[in-house]
Amino acid sequence: MVENHAKGFYNWYMQNTIIIFLVTFLLTACATTPVSERQALILIPKSQEIAFGKQAYQQALKDQKDSDDAHLNQVLQRVGRRIAEVSDMPKLDWEFRLIESKEKNAFALPGGKVAVYTGMLRICENEAGLATVLSHEIAHVIARHGAQRMSQQLLLTGAMMGASISMRNNTQRNIIMGALGLGVLYGITLPFSRGDEGEADQIGLVYMAKAGYDPEEAIQFWQRFSIVKGDKNPPEWASTHPADKTRIAGLKTYLSRAKYKYQNIKLKHGLGETFNLPAEKTDKKEPEKPKPVPGVSVETFN
Ligand SMILES: [Zn+2]
Questions:
Q1: How far apart are CA 244 and CA 252, in angstroms?
Q2: Among 102, 186, 188, 217, which residue carries the largest CB count within 10 Å?
Q3: d(Cα 261, Cα 207) in Å, to the nearest integer?
């Protein structure tokens, strides 16, 4: 009997110790997001999060070709820099790379590592469209959504193994890459939660307005993206960024705050430059050219 009591007390003591430990741990592990001011659970130190971002960036881009279009590169640099400067982390080591690819894709990683694929510029159409994508992605970085997802996934899958988390461990690496939105490359695709998406939209709109871009273009961008997403081959970005009526309705509710910021910004760029990209080449067979008919010019068919 005595032994059982002792055992019972021991179990009770251990359970409560674990709960007290966890509560203390979770309280100290909370971070507040900027703009939306939400408490978030983050179990990964910022320095480690940034190091993972840099490693993931290198891995994701190691077989990709940078665009050699000097002008578009220049546009990406200026839009990215303008947004980074007005963001809540202007001191991060921001890097913006334009990747030559038909893919309609873009991503940003902890540590300020950003990549946009040339195919994405077609949906962006203009600088303000690009500012929509960049500010939304930058907002994911600043709200530390990657670190939150890494924390949740490592805990859920039991892959946290003490305090050691490493990109050298295959399971952990796949979870980290998936949590950072690079799952398509590594087998695990984690769509951002509706909450994360709404938050990135909300923060992104404010950043784009503070950077001098007309925030109304964000609505236009997401409407264009919805149409492309409905195509037979939806872009990779669609797997983590669903565009739907709820999202566009949400954006409209955040718009007034962003417009107020925009009105008070001295240097406005409006929509900025329009991208006049050459027509997209398709893999489909070109339709046969009409054969010349004597006496009729075929030029009108081209
Ligand atoms: Zn997103």
A1: 13
A2: 217
A3: 9
Does 29 have pLDDT greater than 80? no
Contact by Cβ (8 Å): 210, 265: yes
Ligand 1 centroid–CA 190 distance in Å is: 11
Q: In this model, does residue 140 exceed pLDDT 50?
A: yes
Distance 192 CA to ligand 1 centre (A): 6
d(CA 138, CA 81): 11
Taking each helix axis from N to C terminus, what angle separates 145-156 and 46-61, rounded to the nearest 10 degrees?
90
Helices 145-156 & 170-179, crossing angle to 10 degrees?
A: 140
- Mean pLDDT in the chain? 82
Cα–Cα distance, 107 to 113 (Å, whole number)? 8
Nearest to 134 by CA among 113, 99, 108: 108
Q: Does residue 184 have a pLDDT over 60?
A: no
What residues flank ion ligand 1 with Cβ within 5 A? Answer: 192, 200, 241
How far apart are the CA of 65 and the centre of ligand 1, in A?
24
**Is the pLDDT higher at 189 or at 269?**
269
Cβ neighbours of residue 245 closer than 8 Å, sequence gap 6 or more: none
CA 200 to ligand 1 centroid distance, Å: 6
Q: How many Å lie between the centroid of ligand 1 and the Cα of residue 260?
A: 23
| Model pLDDT for residues 97-130, shown as the tens digit of each residue | 999 999 898 999 999 999 999 999 999 999 999 9
Q: How far apart are CA 146 and CA 263, in angstroms?
A: 32
